[in-house]
Every structure is written in C-alpha cells, then in structure tokens.
Amino acid sequence: MALTIRPRIVLPFVASLLVGFAISETASAQDRGAFPLDKPASRRSGLVVGLSLGTSVTAGSGYPNSATRMQDPRYYAASGVVVGTSSTLMIMGALTDYLNFGFWGGGGGGENDDWKLTSAGGGVRVEGFPLFYLVPKLRDLGFSGQFGVGSAKMEAKHGASEGGEGVQSFVGGGVFYEFRLFNPFGTHFTLAPSVEYQAVFSDPFESHGVVAGVRLALYGGP
How many angstroms separate the CA atoms of 146 and 127, rounded? Predict the structure, then answer.
C-alpha cells in the first residue's frame, strides 16, 4: 500500500512540533530550577506591541467556496509560486524574560502572471526564549507560534476560472533574534530578523507560505 503524505497535515504538525519543543524546553528547564520564577525581569517586561513586516513566498490550491464545486476536478485550481508581502500586528504581555503571550492579527497578498492571492487571520500568539538562562549568548533567540482563524482567496487574472476561497484554521511557526535598539522613558525597542511558516486550511481551499522579514517590538518595561 502506497504511503500518501498530505502537506495540510504534515506541515502544521512540524510547525507545532517546533514551537512545542521550545515551550517544553522552557518548562523542563523551569522544573530543574534553571528558570527561576521569582527573579526580577532583566530583558522583557510589561505590555508588548509589535509589528512584523516581510516578503512572502506563497502557494494556494483548491476549489471555490461552494458545496457543488468542492472536490469537482473541473473547478480545481493551483496558483503556483506567488511572491508578495505580509504584515502582522501583535499585542502581548511579557510574562517573564523568556515568555510572551497575547494576540495577533494580520494578512498579506501577492500575485504572479496568472493569479492574485490574499490571506488574513487573527488569534493567539506565544513567543518563547528557551535558551535565556541555558545559553546566555542566545538569550534573545525566540520561537513563535500563531494559532487562530484565517481566510485565503485566489483570483484568476485571466480566463474564466473561479479560483478558490476558504475560511477556517490558521497555523504558523517561526524563529527570530531580538536586538535591543534604545530605551526611551523606561521602555525599550527591539528589532528582530525573522522567518515564519504560515498556512490557512479549509475544506475547499488552502495556502502555504514562508515569510522572511523583521519584527519591531516596543516593551513597556525595561
């Protein structure tokens, strides 16, 4: 029997696994006393307001959002590689030096010669810095996870194809490295190069993409 590998199952699993590994390492280290909870914050504290901007490489495939067209090969369409832009707004709290938690919302889009692809979403975001105490030189290396509801739409630039569209689940995972910029009035700004995987899954349509960019964040505390 042939083994079929489904990207819509495997890729989110890999992203979730990476984020879960970062969080589990943090928890494990905390259990060992490596991450003391009673230690005052030295790098991250307070409200966190962030903006992530980047260049995306995305692909979408599926059917129009119609019960009579889903799974009908005549209506199937695939965009191929689409290059565009992506932006995400984040509002979180720095719970400790090594854990941020809050919410996100954003979207992006791009096009190639034949297709225009757009996506948007929102939900929960978690950022972990599992090496904060374990490897001090890498204390600003972070792993992010985003989960929530997302939508994606693919429109044909030529011809009569109905393209594809769907609204359902969003999953994302990434890695970034923070550089501290300056500290105005007891706060501080950071700049972080980042790479993220993002995907929207629904019954009629799905899109997958990689975003390379920068994450700007203002921490309310020192």
Answer: 9
